[in-house]
What we know:
It contains two helices and ten strands.
Amino acid sequence: MRFALAFVCGLTLLTACDVRESQRAQAGRLEAEWTGADSGKISTPAAAEWCAERRWLEIRAIQGDTGLAMALYPMDSIESDSYPVVDPARADSVRPSASLGLRLFSQTAVKGYRGDSGAVLLVRSRSGRLSGKVTARVRGVPNGEQVRLSGKFDRVAVLPQERGCIPEPHDSSSDAFPDSTESAEPGGGEVD
Length: 192
């Protein structure tokens, strides 16, 4: 009886491990490498979030202390397209476009880079998952050091964005949020 119970428990644990391995295999991944003033690479799970109210898509991957994030600004909804990498300050107003940020930890400092040229090629499958490639030149903030970055991502699921997806106030001269007595516009947060 103990042997049978141990066998069933072992089989249950094995099945649970297989399910977790299967989920990991289905999770989206991003692989990227860069050369220039710094060089390195990452290969890690990736996440994507869509902000319907502001019409932007964030794809990000973090491995240890290294992070890569892309913000894509489509015309209206997430579509397969080529998104030119532009300076982040202009990306929202020059659609379709993309902005890119790379964070690295060196032996002596945290280094930040932002994209100023290149492209993100995005492909959206029938299931809604995202795949694509990125090639970009990124420059160090504030020193301007250059790095060439290339990478690819595959099977990244898109979720509604829960943080940072706040519509900008209608009055651009004010930093205040709209009055709480005003009716809020419905924002389903669903992927188009």
